[in-house]
Amino acid sequence: MVSCAAKGGCPSDYVAVAISISSIFVLLAKAAAPYLIHRIPRPKGSGFWLVVIQVFASFSLLSALVMGLGFLRFRRRHWWISCYVWAVWAEGPLGFGLLMSCRIAQAFQLYNIFVRRRLPPIRSHIFLPMLLLPWIVAAAFIQIEKPLNNHCHMGTRWIITILCLHAIYVAVLVGFTAAVRHIEFRFHEVKDLWRGILVSACSIGIWVVSYVLTEAHEDVPWLQIISRFSLLFVTSVLVVVFFTVSMSQPLVSIMSLRRKEHLECKTMGDVLGIVPESGVLCPREPTQLVDQNEPLDKLLLNKRFRQSFMEFADSCLAGESVHFYEEVQQLDKIPHNDHVRRIYMARHIIDKYISPGSTMEVNISHRSRQEILNTPDLTNPNLFNSALNELMHLMKMNLANDYWSSTFFLKLKEEDSMRTVGHDLEQISGWNFSHRLSSIHCADDPFQQDHSPRKSGSSHESGK
């Protein structure tokens, strides 16, 4: 026991390493499942890369503890096993510091988007290095002073300095959480923030206790082994609990393995509970044929025409304009006083269609794009009007002319003709020939409140 307590390689050490490896696999599964299993398009913004960086920071932190505290038997004559590589750089700037900086960056986004109702003034790829700068400066200073001993431990003065740095970042996270606590989020963002704060504070406390016990009782082998095991175990729990994707990508989170009951949610409109248009025609409603002489903006209000036109645009690899139009229409269905849902939907549209390099970036002018990205109010009902007008003009000039001579329009006309014939037969005989209720007689239809004139007249006469 004395030998493995000093050099590592105890059975408990291997158990702790196995737990840390399992936690990394859990993180990878949670992060990759929505993209590999549910085939969600990978976003190109900070929402995706912050999640990737968190996984990397978690791996770096766990690896730093394994290598720095001597869980495995390695000789320290190689530079890559140096205490300063793992216990300083990998554990500090690339580990816990990077993990906290990612969470603060996400909280900063929440504050700007939901409290100030505008996109963050500083991009994440600039804000994150700014947050990480104090950690880099502290690590460089330790590298120059070289206060570590053979066991990768440092003096009390250095320990207090590092603990103060940890406490400052936790305090900053608490400040942003307090600023957004009154927002009625739909994806438990505030709960995730408080959970991250609680786990971070508890982990720092356990780290301090383990370090003090290890330093004060270096001659007690079993205490060294228990403290080392507790430190790695608590850190493994920290990185799993600390990691959540709902902070940055609600649609990805709702389709992750953690929420199997919401797998039917395919779009942000579904997630936000926006009621879709009904696809069932009322039996008394006359079926209207699509008239190609009508304006395109009026035709797009017809759900069947819009779906057909969207399929044609997708076949031409130019469907992003129609998809943008449909999601803006969903945004318009959200009441103006429902600021939180409008912000969720507006941010989703910006990330998907407006931001440069987005998955379905639309072809709009630089002026319109900057007006949207620099808007002072994400809840503005006219936020996307300028972009929508430009895209409507492009669709009229390009897609619409080709659509009328396509097989998609011919198929739509054929469906309209069949609906018209079925509607006429229904009016004559009282039978419903629609796709969904083709075998239900009007008298047996529980949803049919008003029957045809002939049936109503017959029933009235029989009553007499």
Descriptive account of the structure:
65% of the residues lie in helices and 0% in strands. It contains 20 helices and no strands. The model is unreliable at 254-264, 278-287 and 431-464 (pLDDT under 50). The chain has helices at 2-7, 11-36, 46-68, 83-90, 92-115, 124-145, 156-180, 189-216, 221-242, 250-254, 268-271, 296-299, 303-315, 320-333, 339-354, 366-373, 385-397, 399-403, 407-429, 453-463. The relative contact order is 0.09. The N and C termini lie far apart (102 Å). With 464 residues, it is an all-alpha fold.
> What count of helical segments does DSSP give?
20
Average pLDDT number: 79
Low-confidence parts? 254-264, 278-287, 431-464
Total beta strand runs: 0
